[in-house]
Amino acid sequence: MTTVIENDSQKSGRLEVGTPLLEVKDLHVEFHTRDGVAKAVNGVNYSVAAGETLAVLGESGSGKSVTAQTIMGILDMPPGKVTQGEILYRGQDMLKMSNEERRKIRGRKIAMIFQDALSALNPVLSVGYQLGEMFRVHQGVSKAEAKAKAIELMDRVRIPAAKERVNDYPHQFSGGMRQRIMIAMALSLQPDLIIADEPTTALDVTVQAQVMDLLAELQAEYNMGLILITHDLGVVADVADKIAVMYAGRIVETAPVHELYANPAHPYTKGLLRSIPRLDQKGQELYAIKGLPPNLLKVPAGCAFNPRCDVATDLCRTEIPALHHVTDKDGKELTGRRSACHLWKETLHG
Amino acid sequence: MPDLTKTAEETPAQAPVAAAAKPEKARSLGSDAWHDLRRKPIFVISALLILLLIVIAVAPGLFTSVDPRAGDLREHFHTPPNYSHFFEGDWFGYDGQGRSIYARVIYGARASVVVGICVTVGTTILGGIFGMLAGYFGGWIDTIISRVTDIFFGIPLLLGSLVILNAFTSRTIWSVVFALITLGWTQMTRVMRGSVITVKQADFVTAAKALGAGTGRIMFKHILPNAIAPVIVVATISLGGYIALEATLSFLGIGLQDPTISWGIDINSAQKLIRTAPFALFFPAGMLSITVLAFIMLGDAVRDALDPKLR
Amino acid sequence: MGRFVARRLLQMIPVFLGTTALIFFMVHLLPGDPLAALWGDKAPDPVQLAALRHQQHFDEPLIQQYLDYMGGLFTGDFGKALDGRPVLDKITEALPVTVQLALLAFGFEIVLGIGIGLFAGLRRGKVFDKSALVFTLLLISIPVPVLGFLFQTIFGINLKWVKPTVQDSTDITQLVLPAIVLGSLSLAYVARLTRTSIAENIKADYVRTAVAKGLPRRRVIGTHLLRNSLIPVVTFLGTDLGALMGGAIVTEGIFNVQGVGHALYQAINMKEGATVSGFVAFLVIVYLAAGLIVDLLYAVLDPRIRYA
Fold first, then answer.
1. What is the pLDDT of residues A101-123, one digit of tens each?
2. CA of A28: how far to CAs of A80, A83, A84, A88, C208, in Å?
3. What does residue B130 show for φ and ψ, rounded to 5 degrees?
4. Residue B73: pLDDT band by 50, 70, 90 thresholds?
5. C214 in contact with A at a CB cutoff of 8 Å?
6. Which keywords annotate this record (chain C) (predicted)?
7. What is the DSSP letter of A126?
8. CATH number for domain B48-64+110-263+290-310, candidates 3.30.230.10, 3.30.365.10, 3.40.50.150, 1.10.3720.10
């Protein structure tokens, strides 16, 4: 596997901060099941630049993970099917590439960190083997060299006694250490972009912060783009630059992270923020958004959120809202802010 | 950090398909399985075949009036099949003792069906009880039952049956049933034990205990219905295996004996004349294979319907 | 690993003692007299019967017989046949042929069974998968004696590709057809088990990780998927050796292979109870030893067992 992909030289040049590395354009993904067609992703647009962190926020079934899997090319097809859209990596549509071209991007240019490291790591192979495999396959190095590099990587993600533990198996590590190994594996070939799918959900609260800090630190050091998929608003606040909130396969709001926290422009986002327990409201009942996420086989007409929304009108029940540009009270457009709500003005300013 | 966006009923991140399919879960596993089974052609065909076999086993006289034990060597020594006489006994030809092969194939069904069903029921009851006790109580009861199971499991079924049946001077259907149950219960015990241990850890069992339900009630009302599916699957599949095993033992001359009529015995006596009278081998062998096939197909269908992992 | 082997060996001791005791008591305590059976339906000659009883030590106290039997097992004495020859002689005479036959059958079922299972599992629901299911269903449904005669008739008598029965049991090429018959039932099980295991594991997270790492498909399947999927298959292969030894009795009988199974078949037909139980005791020991080897192999494949 020593062959270098043809246009490697033009691709590997480091991009300036802010130039889009990956752009998802109008992506539609469906699942064909026994009971009908589930529209998991309905026209998602987002982009990530080098050194930038995009947080994709949503409940399960919102399409956040399916989008990530489609970018990675690891979506199970069938039952999954991309019906429309483009995924541009450095301007090239990955959906039009051959399997072999995509394989060479996976792991080397775009890497992924999974939620549950215990099941995501192969239980019968040593962690050293699984880390070294990256170098052996993509760079064709020798077994001994791959092992040395694996130890180096384990040191890099601060696993104690890496040399002694390189031949251990995943089940012999703690949850936090396993997730560090996943991170090491994703970072091994210094990719341009990392997709982290709920990287800390399976971990203890105290360990979550350490793992997140490590990820953010390494991202800054290598100037990588990071797509952070999560349902945890707390994780997002510290590390993300911008946020895309997803609901029922659509992006309902995008905003720079602090603006979204300060002033949400969509009732769903507002509900999410209200359901965070706060110390100054001790003793009060915790708020929860009423109802359940929609069944993707029968998404409600109009805005998919309308049955759970406190302010929904008849318009919301009939017409799907577009992703509007959002303006401040003086009518000045707020850069990077959009909301897919008919009532965004009332939500934002009212 | 707490899960801030989780609503009360939400489950951890899953594929949207799983979330979407959830409202359908209301049907119980049992009725769901039955619903699935009725639409499966394999299940319908094998069930009809088995029904026919059971009728043949219960009332062979309905299918032939010829005595399967009466042979006429002068008239019928190895007479090949005569297809013009349906149900007269000529249909499948005659064997080396001048007996109607058709009548013998019909009367031979009883031994196979009885052995298959009795051994399966016997091993299931025995294994079910031991597996339940071992799985539910654990501790020293589990240790004793598991070690005894290991010991019996150390003897391959066919080899062990040879030794047991060797001790019987005259062997009937019941000696074969006895030998196979003696050696066959271990598999069921293991399946049941594993299943009970899994179910025992479920929250509804803890809840029942917390509510003060008695041991017997928990075992039979809560654990048994939820632990029985894998046992049924293994039982249905092994039924065909026991029928094949009986035929093999009888073929080896250590299973059933004359005057019991068994396909295995007939296959054995036909083998010497395989070149001159292949039909004498073909018909009992064919019936045996169809019977085993029917039970294995039934087992496959039941497993597909009951095993949610494979759905 | 050393601790695992030691523990496994220790665990085997009670099983070995229990299993051999079980065989002993099945021979000696069950109703019916295996020696009297020699006379069939006729009344046995009391003088001859007494002589035989003495030769087989049946006239000694049961506990003495058991101790002799256990002592015999450890010193390689599996009793005497009725003609006075040690059973062990008969076993060692026939063993090389059976080992060859069993290895051929084992190789056949492993290579073809895993191959069919792998391709069927990867193409679940496609034509190959469905044909494999039907094919294995047929193999499972046809009892070994029937399959043996079927192959003998087709390949030996009609097509004349091989001789219908084996003329020289030491000629391994003549053992191919019996080995195929012997291994076919297990082949079907191995194929089905591999298929299910592959189809289940292909959805596993670690396989998805392997794809996300950008590994070539061959490596994803060979290194990650197949290795994990083979764990249950290896367990099956261990218990399957017992079925293989049982099947050898039938197969060797049909094809006239002069192996252990054939000798056992003849002993059954001659109603030589002592020879039968001696053979079975030997085969059970082989079976237990094979089970141990499989367990160790299992531990090599699955580190979670090794370090448990």
1. 888 888 888 999 888 888 889 88
2. 11, 5, 5, 14, 22
3. -65, -40
4. low
5. yes
6. Cell membrane, Membrane, Transmembrane, Transmembrane helix, Transport
7. -
8. 1.10.3720.10
Nearest CA in chain C to A168: C303
Q: Tell me the two tokens of residue C31.
A: 């109703």
DSSP A153-187: HHHHTT-TTHHHHTT--GGGS-HHHHHHHHHHHHH
* pLDDT in the model for residue B76: 63
Cross-chain Cβ contact C142/B152 below 8 Å: no
| pLDDT confidence of residue B10 | 34
Length of chain A: 350
Show which of residues 233-272 on chain B sit within 8 Å of chain C, judged by CB atoms.
240, 244, 247-248, 251-254, 264, 267-268, 271
pLDDT tens-digit profile of B8-62?
Answer: 333 333 334 433 443 444 456 667 777 777 778 888 888 999 999 999 888 887 7
Q: Are A206 and A176 in contact (CB under 8 A)?
A: no
Residues of A in contact with B2 (CB under 8 A): 205, 234, 277
Q: Are A246 and A73 in contact (CB under 8 A)?
A: no
Q: Which residues contact residue C173 at a Cβ distance below 8 angstroms, ignoring those fewer than 6 apart?
A: none
Q: B159-171 b/e with 16+ CB inside 10 Å = b?
A: bbbbbbbbbbbeb
Please provide residue B255's backbone torsions phi and psi, each rounded to the nearest 5 degrees: -95, -125
Instruction: Please determine, for residue A230, whether its predicted confidence score (pLDDT) is greater than 50.
Output: yes
Cβ distance C143 to B244 under 8 Å?
yes
CATH superfamily of A14-124+169-240: P-loop containing nucleotide triphosphate hydrolases (3.40.50.300)
Question: Residues of C with CB below 8 A from B247's CB?
Answer: 143, 145
Contact A348, A253 (CB under 8 A): no
Q: Is the pLDDT of residue A13 over 70?
A: no
Question: Which residues of chain B have a Cβ shorter than 8 Å from any chain A Cβ?
Answer: 1-17, 19-24
Structural domain spans, chain A: 14-124+169-240, 265-349
User: Which residues are CB-contacts of C216 (< 8 A; sequence separation ≥ 6)?
Assistant: A1, A103, A137
Cis peptide before A20 (omega within 30 of 0): no
Q: H or E segment at C130?
A: helix C127-141
Domains of chain C, earliest start first: 2-73 (no CATH), 92-271 (1.10.3720.10)
pLDDT for the residue B5: 37
Q: Which residues pair with A92 in a beta bridge?
A: A89
pLDDT of B218 above 50: yes
Closest-approach residue (CA) in chain C for A71: C212
Q: Which residues of A touch C206 (CB under 8 A)?
A: 119-123
User: CA A50 to CA C209: how far, in whole Å?
Assistant: 24
User: pLDDT, tens digit, for every residue of C188-203?
Assistant: 999 999 998 998 888 8
- Residue corresponding to tokens 């339900």: B213
Q: Which helix (H) or strand (E) holds A20?
A: strand A20-33
| Among B213-222, B291-300, C25-34, the range of highest mean pLDDT | B291-300
Per DSSP, B171 falls in state: -
Continuous H helices in chain A: 8-12, 64-72, 99-105, 117-120, 127-139, 143-156, 162-165, 175-187, 205-222, 233-239, 257-262, 267-274, 314-318, 344-349
Per-residue pLDDT of A182-197, as tens digits, reads 988 988 888 889 998 8
Residues C222-271: tens digit of each pLDDT: 889 998 898 888 888 877 877 787 788 889 888 888 888 888 878 877 77
Residue A23 CB neighbours (<10 A): 17
Q: Which residues pair with A24 in a beta bridge?
A: A46, A87
Given a contact cutoff of 8 angstroms between Cβ atoms, the answer to whether A241 and A257 are in contact is yes
